[in-house]
Each structure stands twice: as structure tokens, then as C-alpha cells.
Amino acid sequence: MTDQIKVLMVDDEKRFRETTRKILEKKGFAVILAENGEQALEKLEQQPDVVVLDIKMPGMDGHETLSRIKKNKPVLPVIILTGHGARPSARDALVEGAFDYLNKPCDIGLLCAKIKEACHLGDKLPAHKERRVTAVMIPVTEYTRISETKTIQDAILELRTSFETKMATEHLMETGHRSILIVDRHDQIKGILTIRDLLEMLMPPYLSAPKPFLADSIEYSPMFWAGMFTQGIKEIKKKQITEAMSPLPAFIDGNANLMEAAYRMLNENERRLLVTAAGKIVGIIREQDLFFEMEKILKS
Description:
The chain has helices at 14-26, 37-42, 62-72, 87-95, 108-119, 121-124, 133-136, 152-161, 195-202, 213-219, 222-225, 228-236, 258-267, 287-299; strands spanning 6-10, 30-34, 50-54, 78-82, 100-103, 138-139, 145-147, 167-168, 171-172, 179-183, 189-194, 251-253, 272-277, 280-286.
């Protein structure tokens, strides 16, 4: 590969092709244009270093074009461009061998960065190959669950069993789940109960109610707090678990990158995400799973 990266831009929208070409050339890239999949295959003879491929095109669409490119040039990186509403299709392309995908219209700085990353992937990747969410998650079949008809006392006892060390997805779940899935009689997941939910359930309502100034000073005295924790446990233990459970966490596709999972957890203030594949919940990825992966990468 020369110092100038050669990009094959495949898109049926002429204006988008030409505009992107001009910008990429100003950024120092050499650009080859193709308006459909058939032209893209012909222009592989010009030895591009990376392909930027639209997923939705008339005739041979992006999926078929990607498959043909990978058959002819298995190591040639392909970045998928996807329009609004076509993200699941783009994620399918990751399974088919695409390097990554970006939404249209895409930020040109991000596109340039992805092109450079794709072209120098062989120089940058360590021995440890970065895995995707499905490889790191806890399978939903191994996650502690309980019926929505059970009590909080039942849930606490079940949750405690998750702290037992056991092997799953190539690492030890030594820290436990810190949460439990709530299911209905059809075994469909209805919600999640976390340790934080239990702590919030313990709090007497009057602690959050408006109170006079004098009550503030009493609240923080040792006498005020004496015995409240034990009393709180006794008061909530027979309540139905649905009174304390939280709604389901946010969803993430199983083919997503780990950095996307980390970003979603931070941005959406979630400690865990439900992992989906083909429209079904297949697992849960937790913040500690990402931590375990950090350790694995450092050791590789």
C-alpha cells in the first residue's frame, strides 16, 4: 500500500458520490467511483485499499456486493453506509464480513478515521482480536430469573445464589449478577430487580416527604437511624416482587462493538444492557463483563 489510501466509493446517489469524492480527495485520499454493485466488482481491478459501500442500491444491493467482494478479495476491508431505518441490515453486514458501518449522512471526519483504521488494521491489531457483544455477554439462559408472582424475600434468596462462582462465557462470574430477571408465567421477561431497587424499597416514604427544619436535624442523628434497616426488611419481605422491580434495561444488538456497549452504558446511565439477536433477547452484558474484557486484552 502506498502512502495515499485508495478508496472505492460505491453509491447509487450521484450527488452523494461526487460530494464525498471531493471532500475525501481534499483530505488526501485517492477515490474510485462506482454507482452500483456491478461496477464496484469491475473496479476491484484498480486495487482499492478500502471499499465504502451503500447498503441499499437497485439491482445488486450492498449485501450481495459485499459477498462478492469478500469472495474475490477476502481481506479487503468494506465500510457499510446505511440510511435511516436500515441499521439492522447494516449490522447483518458485520456478520457477513464488513469492517464497520456508518449512518448516512455521515460525519466526514468519522468516515476518514474509519477508512484509515480499516486500512491499517493489520498494523494495529494485537494478538487479541476484539470481540463483539455476543462473545462477552452472559447468556440469558444462565441469568438468574424468578416469577413475577414471588415475593421480595424470594427474590433476595434467589439473587444471593448468583454470587456463587461459576463459569460462563469464558470468565468467572465472581461478582454475581447484582440483578435478577422477572418473568411471567410464559417465561417472558417483564422487568429486572437490582440491588439498588431493593435499597430504594427499604426507604420509608416520609424520608422523601417535605419536612420542617427541625426534622432535618433529627433525621441525621444516630437515634433516628437506629433499627430502620432491619425494620424495613421485615416490612417489605412479603411484598410482591413487581412492586420493587425496574423496567427492562436498554437493548443492544449482539453484533455491536464493545465500545458501543460501553458508550450506551455511560450515556444512558445503565449498568447492564439486554442483548438481542433476530429480535429475541439472548443475553445480558454488564459493566463487569466489559471490565473482564479489559483484563483479557491487557493479558493478550
